[in-house]
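pasting for ref
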Amino acid sequence: MAAVPMPAADKPSASWPGPARVRRARLYSGLVLFVFVATHLLNHALGLISLQAMEAGRWLFIAVWRNPVGSTLLFGALLLHLSLALWSIYLRRHLRMPIWQAMQLVLGLLIPTVLVHHAVFTRAAWSVYGYQDSYTMVVLLFWQLRPDLGLWQSALVLVAWAHGCIGIHYWLRLRPWYRLVAMELYTVAIMLPVMALLGFAQAGRYVSVLAQDPQWLRDLLADAQAPDAAGLATLTAWRDGIWMALAALLLLTLLARALRQWRESARSVRIHYPNAQVVTVPRGFTVLEASHQAGIAHASVCGGRGRCSTCRVRVHAPDGSLPAASEAETRVLARVGAGPHVRLACQLRPTHDLRVTPLIPPSVPPAMSWSQGHLMAGEERELCVLFADLRGFTRLSEHRLPYDVVFLLNRYFEAVGDAIDGAGGVTNQFTGDGVMALFGLEVGIEHGARQALLAAQAMQAAMERLSADLHEELAVPLRLGIGIHSGPTVVGHMGRGVATYLTAVGDTVNTASRLQDQTKEHACELVMSARVARQARVDVSGLRHAAITVRNRAESIDIVIVSEVRELALPVSGA
């Protein structure tokens, strides 16, 4: 039930006030409804203990949700979430969407049928007729008297839960910490409804035994003060009336959307592409939406959210006929040094005919651009980068057979790769006899810096063990030179086809490579920047320090020279 941000292609135009606030309102209202469903399922799950435990949990549930504050929060969230869902349907330019979003939409539209039925026959019956909707009475009704209603209600509660879990996932999936707990959350998402259904079934079997006593059954019905036939007919009419009103609202929304599209089609613009392709779309479409509408491949690795510049186009249009670029678009274009006639296709909504020329080859098909993850699209991260190089490898390999060289390299890569993985890093490049690894992708830069130093110690220890294993083959022990630096990088999946892999680029990566080169000049095992030492909280007061200028970098950098990596005393928390 938690809201998912709308794809860029379906965002409203600039005239729509506060889209960020609308998304937050959908999110917060959805979270309220999600918590309501979660507490409901938790209450059901108490049936695994006993029916009495369910009744005890019910009093807490009612205390939270059946007071003026809880009721206002719940029903306000329901009305707001439903209204914003209908509004988002109205605003959609087209109904093509990823499968997960279609599921989210369909499940979301089914949820009101659950809540309306539940609210009318519990909350409204309690308020008007004094109905005591105890768990014992509800279980008797759904398990013994009307099992068809029990199946229907259970199915739709699961629909609400699935809708909420999808929303939670797509809300949190870009958070760096989410992948660390994703499996635990997935387990909870599966186990909670399973436990709720098992608890309900356990309570149902228990109530079935009790219901065999006619006196117990008469006492329960008398205590419940259930509405008579006329009252039930009234409640049913209320429920059906609300359902019809909701269906009418959905129908009106679709009709209003169709009317808007019809009116927009009368005010269309033509966009001319290279190779004599012409696309006619209503005013209000972005150039990127026009490309997708016509099936024209158009690069857009961020999915049209204005977070990259890969969709940029050179525009040929009469002066003054283009809407002004937003502040966000201007910032992106300035960052890449775009010319005066270059715009972002995902942000440009032409009001007159124009000609465009995409500037970036469409290496990512349009269908994929909607589903790229944050690292597939590229993201700025502060990371710790490690470079390692095997010393004297040329002399070591020049008199060996090719198969022997491959064998030795594979043993070497396996040893250093295991050391990096064990420390929590990501090995992303093996180049010749060199290795590059990234740290801090998921745990933050300080922990990443400690992980990198742990990896350096483990790598050197692995080289000692490997040298001992191969001592008959080696004239001298294997030695590594390691450079470590931290700072901002652009990290993402780069390459082509099966050669695509996670890597990082930027000044931080180049500097780490230069520091590895410095180990030769200083005849040491490790050179790290002072920044890494501070972030790892390592005492380096007794080690050599220097200030150097590395190639392609204007400012000097303070480095720490470590003759033997085992000299470092790392904090226990870095483990």
